[in-house]
Amino acid sequence: MAGNLYRNVGLKTAFRWLSPLKAASSVAKTLSPGFSGGLLQTPRPASSGVRCQELHAGGRSPTQSPSAAPERGTFSRVTPEDLAFFRELLPGRTITDPDLLEACNVDWLKSVKGSGEVLLKPKTTEEVSQILRYCNRGNLAVTPQGGNTGLVGGSVPVYDEIVLSTALMNNVLNFDSASGILSCQAGCVLESLSVYLEDRDYIMPLDLGAKGSCHIGGNVATNAGGLRLLRYGSLRGTVLGLEVVLADGRVLDCLTALRKDNTGYDLKQLFIGSEGTLGVITAVTILCPRKPKAVNVAFLGCESFEQLLQTFQRCRGMLGEILSAFEFLDRDCMRLLNTHLKLANPITDCPFYIVIETSGSNPTHDEEKLHQFLEETMRSSLVTDGTVATEESKIKALWSLRERVTEALTHDGFTYKYDISLPVERIYQLVTDMREHLGDRAKSVVGYGHVGDGNLHLNITSPAKDPALLASIEPFIYEWTARFRGSISAEHGLGLKKRNYIYYSKSNMAVDLMGSIKILLDPKGILNPYKTLPDDLQ
Amino acid sequence: MAGNLYRNVGLKTAFRWLSPLKAASSVAKTLSPGFSGGLLQTPRPASSGVRCQELHAGGRSPTQSPSAAPERGTFSRVTPEDLAFFRELLPGRTITDPDLLEACNVDWLKSVKGSGEVLLKPKTTEEVSQILRYCNRGNLAVTPQGGNTGLVGGSVPVYDEIVLSTALMNNVLNFDSASGILSCQAGCVLESLSVYLEDRDYIMPLDLGAKGSCHIGGNVATNAGGLRLLRYGSLRGTVLGLEVVLADGRVLDCLTALRKDNTGYDLKQLFIGSEGTLGVITAVTILCPRKPKAVNVAFLGCESFEQLLQTFQRCRGMLGEILSAFEFLDRDCMRLLNTHLKLANPITDCPFYIVIETSGSNPTHDEEKLHQFLEETMRSSLVTDGTVATEESKIKALWSLRERVTEALTHDGFTYKYDISLPVERIYQLVTDMREHLGDRAKSVVGYGHVGDGNLHLNITSPAKDPALLASIEPFIYEWTARFRGSISAEHGLGLKKRNYIYYSKSNMAVDLMGSIKILLDPKGILNPYKTLPDDLQ
Questions:
Q1: Of A319, B83, B329, B475, which one has the fewest beta carbons inside 10 Å?
Q2: Closest CA to A252 of B364, B324, B513
Q3: Which residues on chain B are in Cβ contact (under 8 Å) with A237?
Q4: Which CATH number applies to B294-405?
């Protein structure tokens, strides 16, 4: 899968950027003062004093891509003394064998690759604390890593950062079956937690394609969205507590298990979505919903996106509280599923397909609601064809049409991936405009995603890496998104790949404040360097 | 209402603390270093290096209550030049008439009273920005004020702080009926927004007893909980965007209207629940749920709290996604409602009463679910009696039994109010233990609250202010709460009254980090001084 996109870079060589991203655009530097607040004593590098529209006005050499890695920071290199310390602290769990390091140095898209020489596998918060205290003193950079399933190059080293893996921190700490509050270590795999909870009549409030590999700590660190957000809300509401080890090794214990706590600032929110740049999440408490007694999935076809949106409105009204997902894919996605994965279209050919899921407490009521809704939408010709599944195997088959689009894309060629958030009525217009804009320069331009959340996954393929095509896509796509106050990263985060595009979705002031918070919590910048923050604040 | 608790303090006299709170306990100071991070250059006052259990070990004079106001900060006093500036900026909206200042200087419980001499009523964000820029330069302290309905003394001046009211910032900015995302100025009254949305087939995701007065900006600044949290989650999930004016007058625009946005740290979370100490919220975008097509309310009686909890479990299973509230009050609450407000008990006398609300999209389904649930709980003797309402007037009557307990208490005598969050199975044990602990020293010890959120409102009355009684309540109640990792303020916040009790629910490190964030965002400390942060960090 995507093997053709991957250039093997020898270990211990310098980092090389393998991403297809490369743009003529660049980040302009100006003299606008950074956010200083009360603590800033020494001048910080001036922030990029430009807004989205001006991002490409000049400054850095136009041959350098804004997503290319910056120069290596002035971090120390790992010495034999350092290794001796780690080996004593983590006997058998300090990995330096190049073969074993391979997997943690490359992201799952195989689009970025680092040269980390040490992989540490702590089991306890205390061990994480000792590692970071040591690294902070010694000025050693650290990349925290969960399941390494991120899509923006946030979870692998860029140069020789030490990889701190949460893989062995996989214990459930507590589960309160009265309240549905789960407390666990950060390295628990999402699917394992789901299985654990299903036995206890609960489910996790989030579900992702990567559930078999991703860690809950990584989910929280990246503020993962996924398929259930429409129903159960974001992790900002469902995560009740966190334990975090800060850059200097101190343990910040906010691991409460309460639905309500208004005693001061909600510090844990700083770490949700900070991609490991502010601290290492070591434990999580999360509020879990009851396992629904009935789940139904409908797969429908629509003639236009306008009709799809009308179907969504009617669906919200008629299915109301049992609606748990409203996803879509377009005809081109279906074509890729047919061609590359041999998945058959269960209904007649249409420009748009919808996956609707209901989850409820009364199977009879849910079926009745769903049938009433389907009858009405068919009668009013909002949808042209459809099929419904109530059995688990059939439900899985329908869901796979939505979930396996990513996989189908990897077989179609070199893929340029975008994860855009927009007012819901705008989301497909971007695909149409992009298709028109690119003409026959792209092999496929496909759109799918979470209609209920206004989240579009726009993917563009070409037979091979194509800098000219990329130059046509960017900054076009970011400017288009910024025009409607959308987000250039709805759920994937910024990581390494998108850090310099932040100004399309955040004001200078907001970015400056982010920089000040980074300096407050990680003054030496050892935590996941080169990620999340734009280069002018690194 | 509560008029007997209110001592009239002449304007322009120094602030006087009228709260009943007074304890022999005090905050110990130690040499433990404060949270410094990377920016701290000068030593900060050492933080209170004690944990909950040790809070009362010594240090400050034992005659000084931890909730008493600290000394006035070294802020400037308002001069005629300042007034001239404000009058030019806000003609007719710069209030200095003592009669008109009365209401904004005292909280609605009439428990705290300040001596603010200026009330400013901006209409625009730009005006708020100019006010704060001016005040920050001139070192003038400012108390932001919404509907002034808080219960912890957070919304009124302590000394002569300038009151910055959001009362005239009451415009709806936008409503997207496709997504249910509302954008409005901070001064919109919650009930007005509810009315606005009802016409558009939506509702606000929060509902409070104070809805007729409270402002949405104040709701967000205090992270208000209320009656719908069980169903729609907290404001941390439903607030999508904020516009905030920082202490120095700069406008932080995070007013996006997107369900998903993972472009960097979620800065708006800093301001949710910070009680106006980090910035002044000027506009809010919030995700609103569809208006339910059917609402039912059941009022039930239980013989024991154990049975009440079992009823809750069964309720969650059987009503599932249509459950929108599960509230309780005890027999003593009912006695107060009967005695002081002449409200009749609609069912037979019981030790515990439950209010269950369902909200759903299909009236027939909802009634069926509710009746099945009621039948089963009656058959299994979990509840002993009950009544159900589907008409709006009857629904209101049943709800008033829960909502008017606060009012009934004010007629019972001097009230000591606590707002505690605990693991749900513990919440009533605290009431029982407190009753036993106080014996006949208290007039009434009553418990009510949000079972679904593990949130207990424990209230204790006495014929008059009673320092000896208070000394029996505190620190007993805080220690009890800390023992079970509860929160000493579930939804009311810390404000002035509870700021020094923070260590019962937050670690030293967390409080130190709060202090560093305060210094970063408001280095002169002009925003709502003496609130939220404990005195050792003021």
A1: B83
A2: B513
A3: 233-234, 236-238
A4: 3.30.70.2190
pLDDT of residue B68: 78
**Out of A67-71, B72-76, B352-356, least confident range:** A67-71
Q: How close B248 gets to chain A, by Cα (Å)?
A: 9
Domain with CATH 3.30.465.10 in chain B: 172-287
Q: Is the dihedral of CA B74, B79, B81, B87 positive or negative?
A: positive
pLDDT(B35) > 80: no
The letter for the amino acid at A449 is: G
Q: Residue A7 contacts by C-beta under 8 Å, 6 or more apart in sequence?
A: A16, A18
pLDDT at A65: 66
pLDDT value at residue A2: 32
Q: Are A532 and B264 an interchain contact pair (Cβ–Cβ within 8 Å)?
A: yes
Q: What values do phi and psi take at A334, rounded to 5?
A: -60, -40
Residues of chain A in contact with residue B522, where contact means CB-CB under 8 angstroms, are: 38
- Residue pair A475/A440 in contact by the 8 Å Cβ criterion: no
- Contacting residues of A for B219, CB less than 8 Å apart: none
Nearest by Cα to A318 from A386, A279, A372, A251: A372
pLDDT the model gives residue A372 = 97
- The structure tokens listed for B207 are 């509902």
The class level of CATH for A413-492 reads: alpha beta
**Which part of chain A has CATH 3.30.43.10?**
3-166+509-537
The per-residue pLDDT for range B445-470, each reduced to its tens digit, is 999 999 989 999 999 999 999 999 99
Domain formed by A3-166+509-537, architecture:
2-Layer Sandwich (3.30)
Fold entry, domain A172-287: 3.30.465
Of A44 and A84, which is predicted with more confidence?
A84
A55-73 residue pLDDT tens: 332 223 334 567 778 899 9
* Of B135, B519, B385, residue with least CA distance to A517: B519
Domain span(s) for CATH 3.30.70.2190 in chain B: 294-405
Residue B519 and residue A233: Cβ atoms within 8 Å? no
* CA–CA distance, A407 with A337 (Å, rounded to integer): 9
Cα–Cα–Cα angle for A91, A95, A99, rounded to 5 degrees: 150
Q: Where are the beta strands (DSSP E) in B451-520?
A: 455-462
Within 10 angstroms of residue B375's Cβ, the number of other Cβ atoms is: 10
Mutate to test the interface with B, among A202, A246, A258, A263 (most CBs of B within 10 A): A263
| Mean pLDDT value across residues B4-11 | 27
ipTM of the shown complex = 0.89
CB pairs under 8 A between A and B: 309
